[in-house]
């Protein structure tokens, strides 16, 4: 679940879309992308499609960064 207010500069996104069909996920992603244009967004994702348009991807394993890329 995401929580956004008008004053927050940080948005933390947990994979609430992982159980959705792809069309619904895309619609939610478009809305969230608009919200993130003026905020820093941290996304926890299980699908690559969730992080296609991000600036940086970190892959974690047991709390450690094992890969980093764009």
Automatic annotation (TrEMBL):
PANTHER family in UniProt: ABC TRANSPORTER B FAMILY, MYCOBACTIN IMPORT ATP-BINDING_PERMEASE PROTEIN IRTB
Gene Ontology terms: cellular component: plasma membrane
Domain of life the protein comes from: Eukaryota
The name this protein goes by in its record: ABC transporter domain-containing protein
GO molecular function term, any single one: ATPase-coupled transmembrane transporter activity
InterPro entries: P-loop_NTPase, Type_1_exporter
């Amino acid at each position: 679940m995401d929580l956004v207010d008008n004053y927050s500069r940080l948005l933390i996104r947990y994979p609430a879309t992982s159980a959705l069909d792809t069309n619904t996920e895309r619609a939610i992603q478009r809305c969230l992308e608009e919200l993130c244009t003026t905020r820093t967004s941290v996304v926890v994702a299980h699908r690559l499609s969730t992080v296609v348009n991000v600036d940086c991807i970190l892959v974690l394993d047991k709390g450690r960064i094992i890969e980093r890329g764009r």
